[in-house]
Amino acid sequence: MRYSLDVSHRELGRIIPRFVGIVGLKNLDKRFAALNPQLVAADVMALELRERYSLKFSLSELIRTKRAYGKLPKKALDGPEFRAIAFITKFVRTHSGLQRMGRDRLVGMIRKGLMETLLPLEFELRAAGHFLRRGFDFDFVDMEGRGTFVFFCGGWWNWD
Fold this sequence. Notes:
- The chain has one domain (9-154).
- It is built from eight helices and two strands; from the N terminus they run H-H-H-H-H-H-H-E-H-E.
- The protein has helices at residues 9-23, 25-41, 46-52, 54-69, 80-97, 100-115, 119-133, 141-144, and strands at 137-139, 152-154.
- The chain has a two-stranded antiparallel ribbon with strand order 1-2.
């Protein structure tokens, strides 16, 4: 599988609703609503919770902004927003490149991640992104049910 990691501001406006459609708005709203009381109840742990769930907070803010205004601000998206956009882009493009079993497993991984942590899935997609940027083909072998290892990358050799 190969896909582009570049995304324009215009394309981003279509990727976020696609992400919401794949994962399910009720799943996202339910988990995002559970984050804020958790943060308030554990004032001492707020910093650790903020760090652990930073991707979820960023996703929540992006989706909330998109729903409220119908678009994202044209300002430069950086830091946590950029991390969320990179995650959404990789998720949506990976989802579209997988077979049915792989898509179902990927959706299951994100739903589980919304209940716990998205870090393992984020790191797997980030690894794929690094290899894709360098011209490798990338297969999510475990998601597709074709093997016991996580992924396979190949197709690029530089003998110089």
